[in-house]
Amino acid sequence: MPGSPIPDVRPLLRGVALVLLVLLAVLMLLAVDGLLLIPALLLSYDLWGIAWQWHGFLPDPVQPPGPWTSLSLGLVASLLLALVDGIVLGLWARLRRST
Is 51 left (phi over 0), alpha (psi -120 to 50) or beta? Predict the structure, then answer.
């Protein structure tokens, strides 16, 4: 309100809400990535025809691949996760626009 000694805090609150919304979206995508990490690794092992085994929490290759194969396996697994992130963000944006 003009002439009021109390500043308008609505723009500040709107900014804080948007920052919290972005943080929530990042946390949601990290949770999706965490759930899809093992299937992405298994799919990349299968695409390259590398035998794998369970020795712990994550699947390991039976024979450790060379550096270039390891790089390509990680790249494929990361691209699969990025693709899922893009789809989730697109759906979320579409739902947000429709409401």
Answer: beta
Instruction: Kindly report the number of other CB atoms within 10 A of residue 30's CB atom.
Output: 11
Count other Cβ atoms within 10 Å, centred on residue 97.
7
pLDDT tens digits, one per residue of 55-95: 777 788 888 888 888 888 888 888 888 888 888 888 888 88
Model confidence pTM above 0.90: no
Angle at the Cα of 77 from the Cα atoms of 86 and 66, rounded to 5 degrees: 155
Tokens (6 digits) for 26: 């990042």
Output the CA angle 35-36-38, nearest 5 degrees: 100
* 73 in Cβ contact with 52 (< 8 Å): no
Query: Residue 47: which residues within 8 A CB-CB, separation 6 or more?
Result: 76
List, for residues 4-30, the tens digit of each pLDDT value. Answer: 677 788 888 999 999 998 899 888 888
